[in-house]
Each structure stands twice: as structure tokens, then as C-alpha cells.
DNA sequence: CTACATGCAAATGCTTTGCAACCTA
DNA sequence: TAGGTTGCAAAGCATTTGCATGTAG
């Protein structure tokens, strides 16, 4: 556990708004100005394997990271890419529905919502493109 | 509707195994040897906008394309990236669960399964890494 | 004839990697 | 001091884009 890894974990946990590697890099840089982006990527990978954090591979967007290890769903803003936790109960039975109906051995599932955050909703109303 | 666009659509529909742009490019090339990858990308984009096909932005994988416009879920193989349709009924009510519980204006949702296809399952048993 | 589509190649953006120097247990 | 880790720079890969030419309607 190097200083770099420590700071990355702390910074990710203190304000867990699901940052991308690059956003996290910028924040970590205020504490460790000489850290490199490669180190951030490498440590995020290691921390995932250790089960301390999770990598979010949301469709149609770059990778983001979640400071908590517990499984939950997310909502992503189509306007600004902001990611929030989705307040929905996990679908505990959904994988059973596939049993016998698919040739795959199911390992996991993920549910993702997309929509517009308040700011982007307002922005759209201003510019008149309410349907986009 | 150019010849290129026509062929891309036909090839995508005739064997809809959710190819990537590149795989589709290779297949289309057997009919139109001089087509460029850029053209394939551009036409796939256009066909999506026309509602003829859909773009699948599955997490942790490159973009894939589905020759049908109707909404359904998918399963992806963690070993070889093969993508099948998931035989599960659409969750028609799920977005309502978020109503009032999030500040987002929900537009859509997507459910994704991951697992192992028969071939990769067998492969794992052979090499002894049953848990990966 | 005009607008849009093409082929080609270069550019982009995120992510990974090779490598020599550097810590740290 | 041995093994993992770092910073840096370069490479990798999927995708997008600029531009001159070509083609459909």
C-alpha cells in the first residue's frame, strides 16, 4: 500500500460521485502533484481486484469508479454524463428467469438507467429542444 | 440509399449475431471490396437514426450492432465477447420505481447479463480455472 | 446539377504498457 | 535487497473526421 494508492482510495471515497480515471487524477494531483495518470489507472485496477472499489463500465461512456464495493445500479445523464446511484432494489431473481432458456452460464447482471439530470433538463427547456 | 448502405443493412440482417463495426466491415467487404471502415461506421450511425437498426453499447466491450429495431436485452460472454439475445420479458414497470426517488428525468433503461457461452465454459473446465 | 456519400488517411480520446529508476517491507 | 510500484513516454485500439472525389436522384 503505497502513498499513491492510499490517496487515490481516500479521494475516491471522500466524494463518491463516480469519477472517471482522469477526473480522479486531477483531484489526486492536488495532493500528489507528481503522480502520473498511468499510476492512477494501475491502482484503480488493483483496488478493484482487492474488492475495495468497483469499476463501472457504463454503456456509451468512459469507465468510472465507485468508492464502495457493494453492488447497486446507476443512472447516467445523457447531457453531461453525471452518474448517480439508482434508488431501486436489486433484482435478486432476475437471473433465475434465464435458467433453461439460454445456453449461457449466467454470472451476473447489470441494470442501467439513462435520463437527464436537473441541470441538463433545464438547459434543454431553455434552448427549446425538449424532445432530444 | 446508396449501394453501400444497402449492403450493410442486408449483411447485418441476414445473420444477426450482433457484430462489431469491424466484423461487419469484413463481411461487407466480401461484397464490396473497396468499401472503407469509415463508411461502415457512418452508415451504421445513419441507420440507427432512421430506426432501422440499433447500436448496442454494452459495458466493457466495443460497440455492436443489432439488425432489428425492437428493444430487448442481451447476454455477453466474458470469454469470447459473443452476444446473444436474453430471453427475458422487458421490465415495463421498472422506470416507475424511480419516480420521485431520483432527481433525474428517466428516459430509458437497459438490462445486461454477463456469463459464459457453452464453448468458453468448456474451455475453462479443461484448463482448470473453474472460478474465473 | 447539387447535395450528400465515399475512400483514404490522419487525428482523436481513453486506456494500457515498456522501461529504467525508486521505494518499501 | 528483492519485488512490487512509480513517472514518463510511447503504443494500442476503437472510433471519428477532413478533404478531395464520386455518385444518386
The oligomeric state is homodimer
| Strand order across the largest sheet of chain A | 4-3-5
Give me the Rg of chain A, rounded. Answer: 18 Å
Order of helices and strands of chain A: HHHEEEEEH
- Beta-strand content bin of chain A: 15-25%
Assigned CATH superfamily of the largest domain in chain A: Winged helix-like DNA-binding domain superfamily/Winged helix DNA-binding domain
**Most strands sheet of chain A:** 3 strands, mixed
Q: Estimate nothing, just give the exact number of structural domains of chain A.
A: 2
Helical amount among residues of chain A, as a percent range?
A: 25-40%
Distance between the termini of chain A: 47 Å
Work out the number of β strands of chain A.
Answer: 5
| Overall residue-averaged pLDDT value of chain A | 94
CATH architecture of the largest domain in chain A: Orthogonal Bundle
Tell me the number of helical segments of chain A per DSSP (H or I, 4 or more residues long).
Answer: 4
CATH topology of the largest domain in chain A: Arc Repressor Mutant, subunit A
Largest interface chains and counts: A-B, 36 and 36 residues
Silhouette of chain A: flat
- CATH C-level class of the largest domain in chain A is Mainly Alpha
Unreliable segments of chain A (pLDDT under 50, ≥5 consecutive)? none
Structural class of chain A: alpha+beta
Provide tags for this entry.
homodimer; about 130 residues; alpha+beta; Arc Repressor Mutant, subunit A; Dna Ligase, domain 1; 2 domains; 3-stranded mixed β-sheet; two-stranded antiparallel ribbon; flat; DNA-binding
